[in-house]
Amino acid sequence: MVNQLEIRNLHAKIVDGETILNGVNLILPKGQVHAIMGPNGAGKSTLGKIIAGDPSYEITKGDILMDGESILEMEADERARNGLFLAFQYPVEVPGVSNANFLRLALQAKKGGEVNMMEFYGKLQKALQTLEWDESILTRYLNDGFSGGEKKRNEIMHMMVLEPTYAIMDETDSGLDIDALKVVAKGVNAMRGPNFGALLITHYQRLLNYIIPDAVHVMIDGRIVTSGGPELALKLEEQGYDWVKELAVTG
Ligand SMILES: Nc1ncnc2c1ncn2[C@@H]1O[C@H](COP(=O)(O)OP(=O)(O)OP(=O)(O)O)[C@@H](O)[C@H]1O
Ligand SMILES: [Mg+2]
């Protein structure tokens, strides 16, 4: 079995709308953490949502393979059950459903059966401890009235409890204060290991000081235009995207 998440020549458009992805190629080996950077509107969030199975987009060409198997025919919930996790750029508020209950149901759906409550609370406690967080967040309605930073930290908490095989984190660092950023990085780093791969979408090199990526990819106009190591993020911070945009035109 190929242990990787592979995006193969992916072209996609909004259903009844314009084309956003123009041939994305990207391989995330299990056990690695990769960063995706790129200017506003490049298609980063769209890529994340399409991997997670958002039905507002239509794939016109290419494939997404998880451990060698195409996942295109799977609905979003089936992809989640199979170990995919997307932490949203803008987490949705779910008034009326407590944070802990939502998470328990998600875990139950993933496991396909009743969740052992002791085990569930054990995982919750461990995640809260790593994230230096208080239990009071569990009884509140999911994301309802959460501050921007609390929403982001909560996404990481969910990820830690659900233990996905592949996680996509869309600007999890945006809106976090410097202490929260370190704590969230600690959570992600705690997940690292041979059975976990992650794509971190970010605008800022700063996050990558705390979560050192195995590779950095740059997306422009719906394609990965160049890739490199952590030094690429530093170069972008210093020089901006103009030089990559030129690569996009010539390449
Ligand atoms: N459902 C949609 N309806 C209309 N336009 C869309 C939709 N989804 C994506 N787009 C457009 O596709 C382009 C890519 O959007 P996307 O959110 O993927 O960019 P991004 O790289 O994540 O940008 P940012 O860094 O600002 O988050 C944008 O021009 C956006 O307006
Ligand atoms: Mg985005």
Key features of this structure:
binds adenosine-5'-triphosphate; four-stranded antiparallel sheet; 251 residues; binds magnesium ion; FeS-cluster_ATPase_SufC; alpha/beta; nucleotide-binding; ABC_transporter-like_ATP-bd; Rossmann fold; globular; P-loop_NTPase; ATP-binding
Give the helices and strands as they follow along the chain.
EEEHEEHEEHHHEHEHEHEEHH
Count of β-strands: 12
Shape: globular
Average residue-wise pLDDT? 95
CATH topology: Rossmann fold
Output the CATH homologous superfamily: P-loop containing nucleotide triphosphate hydrolases
Q: Give the CATH architecture.
A: 3-Layer(aba) Sandwich
CATH class value = Alpha Beta
How far is the first residue's CA from the last residue's CA? 32 Å
Strand arrangement across the biggest beta sheet: 6-9-10-3-11-12
Strand content: 25-35%
Outline:
This is ABC transporter domain-containing protein. With 251 residues, the protein is α/β, with parallel strands linked by helices. 39% of the residues lie in helices and 29% in strands.
